[in-house]
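User: Teach me something about this protein's shape.
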Amino acid sequence: MLEASRSLFTHYRRLGQSVEPGYLLPGLIAQTHTLRELSVHVDDGTRRDLLALGSRYAEYVGWLMQETGDEHAALWWTQRAVDLAAAGGDHALGGYALVRRALITLYQDDAAQTIALAQRAQSDTLPQRIRGLAAQREAQGHALAGDRDACLRALDRARTLLVRKDGGAGTPVIGSMHLPDSVGMVTGWCLVDLGRPREAAEELDRQLALVSRDAVRTQVRYGIRRALAYASDGEIDHACAVTEPLLDGVVTVRSATVTIDLRRLARLLARHPTHAAVRRLAPRLGTLTRPPTS
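Assistant: First, the predicted structure itself:
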């Protein structure tokens, strides 16, 4: 059951790149409960392994809840992941939960809270990978605050920390499994907020070329960011050309976080109503960025 559940988790994460969260959440939640229940009936070593894997399921549920736009549920499931891990003797996931919470505050445009949460997740007692991911998130917070030097220092720390991955064989990787160079991609992300759109576009061009075409959610997330960089640099027609092929993917993955950047892009493009490409995209952007009806 443990090995099958590990394999299934990897499969779910791959599926999560190409379908909307609602299709995956029931199965993931059921699997989380199953692993917790099984842990009651096995030896101590297997119990630890089952709870550790159950915590990763719960953490992924939390991320997908954020993708649906339900931040309250995202935080609840992230805390559930921490509790499951701690029950199995792993207290490090609490550090990663801070990184996840900082992602929520990042999308709320709260730079100070993002930085503070990410810095708390860089304790020397935490695994190197978690500290590296926290340094990346701190960099995003500094970029949001417009502090270029602090952002670049945090990115340098992240690069050093993420050279080596923690965890043994068969352990699901913490953080994205679809970014060949996560620090490079986050650098491009940060450059947008730092007001350096040309450099951002060039870096995101390089990084997106490395991402698998099957990773639709990742392609859309950073592709819209790339289009935002081009639009901010005044390259309106190219921004539209970059955006158009991503819109089917936007519909497919239904990401609340991607929609935040898509709205920024739509507002920026709307300042250029005389461009034929903008007029062509406007109706679909209007539909995709409309708040969901209750």
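Now, about its shape. The chain is about 75% helix and 0% strand. The mean pLDDT is 94. If you'd like, I can walk through any region in more detail.
User: That's plenty for now, thanks!
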